[in-house]
Amino acid sequence: MLYNYPMITGHIKTPTIKSLALLVVVAAIAIGTMSLSWPRLQASLTYLPVDTAINNYYKTQQIPNQQIPELIIRAEQAITEHDHYRYHEGLSLLHYLYGVDA
Question: Which of 77, 74, 67 is nearest to 97 (CA)?
């Protein structure tokens, strides 16, 4: 079967309306996805030090006592940004550890 390919004569093809419309649709979907996922990303970045401290606690059984109130504040900020069960679990553990050390 033979295919007829257009001859390229050295000039650049101009984009068609279909390709521009496709570009606009893809850009709109990307922007929409980013705007919907931004609160979760921001909350996870806020919670990252808390998660690291909890993982270190499970490894060494130690968290510096002066660090716990700061971690509690960060966990509460993460909960206000995106309500997720992991953030509540970490906040509960931090309150428990703060109460045990007090």
Answer: 67
Angstrom distance (rounded) from CA 22 to CA 20: 5
What the block records as the tokens of 18 is 């279909």
Q: What is the Cα–Cα distance from 3 to 11, expressed in whole angstroms? A: 21
Residue 47 host element (H or E): helix 17-60
Q: How far is CA 37 from CA 2, 9, 41, 44, in A?
A: 48, 46, 6, 11
Does the structure show a pLDDT above 80 at 9?
no
Which has more pLDDT, 23 or 17?
23
Q: How far apart are CA 26 and CA 20, in angstroms?
A: 10
Q: Tell the residue number behind the tokens 């922007």, with chain if given.
A: 31
| Amino acid, single-letter form, for residue 96 | Y
